[in-house]
Records
---
Amino acid sequence: MLILHAAMIVPTHVRDKVVHVPQSVPDTRPRVFVLDDDLEMSRLVEKVLVRQDYQVATSNCPQEALEELLTGGYDLLITDLRMPGMDGLALMRIVLEAVPRMRVVLMSAYGDMEDYRQAMQAGAFGYLPKPLSMSDLRRVAENALAQPPRPH
């Protein structure tokens, strides 16, 4: 015999037992956002990080990325330094002001020591030169995510 219970058909022998329906398990993998105006570079970085078992979102537009970063609950931002519309350093400052717990890694094809110094002083966790070394990318992402978030 079957009885209708909470919009479900439940066999009679189960009716008197406590049945726990598991809730969906939240995805606790680190969330990484990759921003580069070069779409191929974004996709390459995404591919490497997905293989490291991170949740990855990408964009090639700093303005659109900023909106997502301020509301999306990301743990790590990996962004190009020089992009049209807004550079990675300006974007990083805005993001860290609003979301201080986020870690930021800048990447650049321009090996300018002044850019590196400014990035680190502004709160960047790391700085990756392009062309990227995939092993350096994996190591820097892993190290950044292993650090406790900065206090609010």
---
Amino acid sequence: MCESIYAAIGRWRLLEVTAFFALALLSLAPAPASADDGHRLRVMIQNLYAGSFFQEFTAARTPSEIIAAATLTYQHILATRPAERAVVIADEIAKLRPDFVSLHQAAILRTGTAPPATTVTFDLLQSLLGELAAKGAPYEAVAVRPGLDAEAPTALGFNVRLALRDVLIVRGDLLEEGYVKLSNLQIRQYIAASTDTEGYSSIDVTWRDASSGW
């Protein structure tokens, strides 16, 4: 268990340096008038931050060190106040209203007494989407690429499971009003080991010009 968790964390940190979330844009026409900002496509990249750099895990070598690392990491993640951070990020997105947002480290933290842990402590993606909807700026997730999904016991009497995802979200009004067509979604996963994957996501986007059609 110690070796598999350490390997998963190590590969994920390398992946964060080298991976990208690809947005393939084909047949681009001017953005609709309701998209603001001079009819230009606007894409935002936002790291949601899982809440830890996992240094305790990368230093751990024994089962007892893994338990101590999982306990500290869990406490550190909660100390970063994920729900409050989601509110601040939602405020920024709602103010800028980018057409697409590429989200990194869209974490789900779960706990449980036996693997796999299923009780959700927080889900950064759902928290963010909920905050955006409450602000009158709904977005929809159109591509989700799973990444690290690791679980370890803690000294608190339960296991902690952290799953990371890269997610592409799009303005809900663009979809609802038919200004944008999405097609050819591709999620490519390259299996690096049984505990981790690497890969990318891409999607083709076609805009409808409000005056001349597609």
---
Amino acid sequence: MTATRRLAAILAADVSGYSRLIGDDEEGTLDRLRSIRAEVVEPTIAEHRGRIVKTTGDGMLVEFTSVVDALRCATEIQNALAKSNAGIAAERHIEFRIGINVGDIVVEDGDIFGDGVNVAARLEGLADPVRALTQFNKLTQESYSGAVRFARRALDIDASYAPAAALVAYLYVMQVSQGWVRLDRARFAEVRDLAKRAIQDGKDDPDTLWMAAQVIGFAGEAQTALSVVDRAVSLNPNSAHAWMQRGYILCFLNRPKPAVEAFQRAMRLSPLDPLDYYFFGGLAMAALEDGRYEDAVEWADRSLREEGTFLVALRIKVAACGLLGKSAEGHQALARLLELRPSFTVAIFRTYFSEFFAPEVVAVYAEGLRKAGLPEE
């Protein structure tokens, strides 16, 4: 059969401490592993449109067309394993190490070869047998820092690995937005360059592109960011996160109506998305820009019910309440905002957000925050 070449997301997995487990209890370990594969691993891979290429005694190689599908699959498997290990002595836990890579592969007689496969295998060898891939979905400083460390380890193996480069840059921007990291100009220039390099190296990977687009937009290059995210949605029209990011970039440009369409499409594509609070926060942002302040409060509340520390939604709620004259509700939201970010002021808001929002949007935000009682300096 003729060999063909294509871009794919490759997941490599094996059982941590397999030899020790077999040595301690061969029959019991094999029975549990067969059960985990039949009841958890294989159905989850099928649900996320993966193809099992090969299996070994303790591992497997799986091909996906989307890195998001691969990540979600890995996350669900790791969560299921954590539940299955509950109540079992630690030394008998069955835990998977998982590495994921997007790259060029060669397909021949149903098998796959190439650098894309090799890098995934090397990442799997470095991975800790924990739920590292779930960290991106948890909005905490610790989880985001852990995700950055994981992505940087991938870059140490392959400096041209575009998804990891885009993820490092994207998470830095989100850490700044959450107030966990101060905006350092030199560091941000480095992160922006990392995102631009990811766009070049990962020009055919939609997940790389939407993450890098956020960074480029945050750097004040919203039109360029829009063209990047448009390529992402053209490569994968079913990427909910790419549509979400398109919505945010349109908000940067003060184009709330098409932004709403983008966020709504993201919600239709992934109605139970673990990052749905980003979708709702985006709809709140678009509503604020469109002058629909009651809707902005409603969507911000929905976002905050899912993730109470999401400062994007909390800032919008404070501003919208200020503009509506809802003093009691606004003061309550402002107290929560200052609890999470005590030094926040209108001046700090302007310093950060004038970089990427249209001036008229910054003015509306600032007016609302000021009316709600946020200190000027």
